[in-house]
Amino acid sequence: MVRVLGGPNDIIDSPSRHLPRAPVERAVYGPSGHVAKIDTRALGLAVIELGGGRRKPGDGIDHAVGLTELAGKGDDAGNQRPLAIIHARDESTCSRAAEIVRNAYVIAAAPAKTSPVRERFGPETT
Questions:
Q1: How far apart are CA 89 and CA 100, in angstroms?
Q2: Using the 8-state DSSP alphabet, how is residue 124 labeled?
Q3: Does the structure show a pLDDT above 90 at 64?
C-alpha cells in the first residue's frame, strides 16, 4: 500500500532507512498488572505534544517523534513491559508525553476480558 501511494516499498522492514530518528528514546512504565482500558485520544494528544501531530492546520509534523511498542488491552504491564516507547526531540517533551501516556492507561489486577476473536487468533492478527 505504501508503494502504491508513492512511498518506499521497504518502509515496514527498514524504517530507519527512510525516517529520521529522535534523539531521545525512553520506555514509559506503569504499575504492575494488566491493561484494562486505554484512552486512545490521550495517546494521540501525547503524539501532538511530541510534535508528531498538528495543533492547527498550518503546523508541521516531526516524523522522528512519536510512540511505538504500545501495550494493548489485556497485555501485562509493569517493570518488565513498558506501556510505550517514547521518541522525542528533548527530555522536556519526553517527560510531558510520558505523563500523558501513564494517565491514558488503566491497569487492573486481573486480565481484561478479551473478545473471542482475539482469544482464537491472538493479538498479532486482530
A1: 16
A2: G
A3: yes
Dihedral (CA of 50, 64, 30, 36) sign: positive
- Split at pLDDT 50, 70, 90, the class of 95 is very high
The CA distance from 97 to 31, in Å, is 17
Q: What is the DSSP letter of 111?
A: P
Question: Once rounded to an integer, what is the mean pLDDT over residues 56-77?
Answer: 94
Measured between alpha carbons, how far is residue 25 from residues 2, 15, 66, 98 in Å? 26, 16, 10, 11
pLDDT single digits (tens) 1-54: 888 888 888 988 888 888 899 999 999 999 999 999 999 999 999 999 999 999
pLDDT at 126: 44
d(CA 35, CA 40): 13
User: What φ, ψ does residue 3 adopt, rounded to 5°?
Assistant: -60, -45
- Going from the N-terminus, what domains does the chain have, and what CATH number goes with each? 20-121 (3.90.1170.30)
Give the integer Cα–Cα distance in Å for 85 and 66.
8
